[in-house]
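A reminder before we start the practical. When you read a complex entry, don't treat the lines as separate problems. The point of joint prediction is that each chain is placed relative to the others, so the output describes one connected object in space. Small molecules and nucleic acid strands, if listed, are placed in the same frame. In the example below there are two entries. Take a minute to note the order of the lines before looking further.
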Amino acid sequence: EVQVVESGGGLVQPGGSLRLSCATSGFTFSSYWMCWVRQAPGKGLEWVANIKQGGTEKYYAASVKGRFTISRDNAKNSLYLQMNSLRAEDTAVYYCSTSDRWGTPSQYWGQGTLVTVSS
Amino acid sequence: QSVLIQPPSASGTPGQRVTISCSGSSSNVGHNPVNWYQQLPGTAPKLLISNNNERPSGVPERFSASKSGTSASLAISGLQSEDEADYYCAVWDDTLNVLFGGGTKLTVL
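Here is the predicted structure of the whole assembly.
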C-alpha cells in the first residue's frame, strides 16, 4: 500500500522558519521526481518546488525562490521543504506528491500539512 | 490570475456530459503534456488524467481529455453526484515552472 505522509506544519510568526517532511512507502521513492504543492485557504493549487530523483536538479516557483529549499533523502524515502523568511501569504496546506517526467504532480499525494504564518 | 485559464464554474444534471477547458500558450499547453486533477471537498487532489489523455488505473472511463494547440479540455460523461468537485489542469512551462489552472468548481444540479 502506498503511503505519503506530510508533517511539520504549524503556527509560525512572520519571518520565522519551518521544516516540512514527507515520509513515503509502498513505491520506489528514488525512481520518482518529487514536488511540493500548496493551497491557500479557499484558493486554488500552487506549485512550490520540484526535485529530481538524485537531488541534483531543483526548480522553484518565483514566489518562494531564495526562501524555500527542497531536498530529499532516498535512503529514508523522504522529501523535505525548508521554509525560511515566512510571510503571511505562505499560509497554506502543503502537499507532497510524486512528479512525472515533465515535472507535473502525478499519482501519489499526501493528505497535506497546514502551515499558518501569523503573529 | 493564473496563466492557465479555466472557467471558474461548470454545472450539469446527472447523466449529462460536461466539459471543462484549460487555455494556455505555446510555452506550456502548446508544447508539453497536460494533467488533470480532481479535488473532492476537504481532500487532497487526485490525478485524473495524465499526459493529455491517459487515465490512471481506477479512474472511470467517463473521464476523458484532449488537447488541441494551446487549449486542453476535460470531459465527464454520464455525470454523477459524486463528480461534484474542483478540477484543475496543470502543465510544465518552458520557463521552468509548473503551472496550475485556477480551478473549475463543478456542481451537479
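Discuss with your neighbour: Chain B has a mean pLDDT of 96. What might explain this?
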